[in-house]
Amino acid sequence: MRRILLLLTDLELGGTPTVVRELATRLAAEKDLYVHVACLDRLGPIGIELQSRGVDVTALNARGPTDLSAIHRLHRLISRQKFDTVFSFLIHANVAAAAATLFSHGIRLLQSIQTTQPNPRWHWRLQSITQHAAEKIIVPSPSAALAAMDWADVPAEKILVIPNAVEPTDFAGIHPPGKNRVGFIGRLDPIKRIGDLIAAMAELPSDYTLHIFGEGSERENLQSLIQKMNLNDRVALHGPIPRASEALATIDVLALPSAAEGFGLVLIEAMAAGIPVVATDVPGIRDVIENGQTGLLVPPADSAALAGAIREILTNADLRGHLIAEGRLRVVEQFSWRQVFPMYHNLLVEEHSA
C-alpha cells in the first residue's frame, strides 16, 4: 500500500488548507492508498473537519518556526508510519519536511510554492536552498512558476503547474441578494490591500455596502480606516467563516484587491457560485481571471478604478450575466476537481508506480 503524508504549516481556515482538505479526502477514497495529514501548528478547524471525514491528522504543535523539537516529532511520525511520499505546502512546511527527511532513504519529497508575494525575501532565499531536497516543485499558476524560478532558483524542468480547484456542486443554488452588497473573503493581511476596497466604497453610492469576511493582522487598521472615512454604517467586518459559500450567498460581487496572489482560490469559488468578480491585474490573479470574460481586472492600488468596475458590474445586467456564465464555464473546464485531481493522482500515484 502506498503511504502519503501531506504536510502544512497550519490547518486554519484559508486557501491552501482548503485545497489540501479536498485533496486528502479524494486520495483517502483511493484503493491501496493511505493518506495522512500533518501540520506544524495546532490542529485547527480544517484538521478537525478532516478527522470527521475519516482522515488521520497529526498536529505537531510547534512553539514557533525555530522549534526543532517539532521537526524531531515529524521525523518520528514519518519513520513510524513508513511514508514513501512526503508532500509539503508553503515555506515553513517545506523546510521542516526537508530537514526531517534529510537522512532518510527511499522517501519521495515533493514541495509546493503557493505565492507570488516578493517579500519577505528571506522566505525565497530559504526556499532556494530547500528546493534542492525535492523531486518536484508544484505551483498553482504560471505566475507562481515564474516567481519560483526567479526568486528561488528552481529549475524550470522541476516545476509542475497544478491549479487550485473547487467542486462546482458545492456552490450550486447560491443566489445573490441583489442589494448592491460587495464582498471580500480572505486573510486580513497587508498584501490583500483591503484598504483600497474600503476607499472605493467612499466613491460609490450610499446604498452600496461592503462585507469583509476573514481574520488577520490588519483588523485594527481596517477598523480605524472605516471609522476615519465615516463608513461604519456601510462597511462591516464579519470575522472568519468556515466555508466561503456562506459568505458568497450574502453578496452580489466579490472584490479581491490584492497586490499579489499565488492563485486566489476565492476567485474560482465565487465563479462557481455565480458571483461576478472584480480583482487586480497582478500575478496569480491574471492567471485565473480573463478581463471582460470571467471577471473585471483593474490596476492595483487604484480605488477609483476598483469602484468603477464594481459599479459597472452592478448596473450593467448584460455584462454581469456574461461574466457569470463564462466564469462558471471556466471553473468546470479548468478549475474543477474533476479536471485537477487526475493531475495530482498522476503525480502522487502513477508516476511513483512507473
What does this structure look like?
The chain has 354 residues and is of the alpha/beta class. It folds into two domains: 181 residues, Glycogen Phosphorylase B (Rossmann fold), CATH 3.40.50; 167 residues, 3-Layer(aba) Sandwich (Rossmann fold). It contains 13 helices and 13 strands. The strands form two sheets. Strands 3-2-1-4-5-6-7 form a seven-stranded parallel beta sheet, sandwiched between helices. Strands 10-9-8-11-12-13 form a six-stranded parallel beta sheet, sandwiched between helices. Helix 1 runs parallel beside helix 2. The longest helix is centred in the last third of the chain and has 18 residues.
Q: Which regions are unreliable across 5 or more consecutive residues at pLDDT < 50?
A: none
Largest sheet: 7 strands, parallel
CATH superfamily of the largest domain: Glycogen Phosphorylase B
Tally of distinct domains: 2
- Alpha-carbon distance between the two ends: 15 Å
What is the approximate shape? Answer: globular
Would you state the CATH class of the largest domain? Alpha Beta
Q: Give the radius of gyration.
A: 20 Å
- Assign the CATH topology of the largest domain: Rossmann fold
Q: Widest sheet: strand order?
A: 3-2-1-4-5-6-7
Structural class: alpha/beta
Q: Average pLDDT across residues?
A: 95
Strand content: 15-25%
CATH architecture of the largest domain: 3-Layer(aba) Sandwich
Tell me how many strands there are.
13
Assign a percent range to the helix content. Answer: 40-55%
Number of helices: 13
Output the helix-strand order: EHEHEHEHEHEHEEHEHEHEHEEHHH
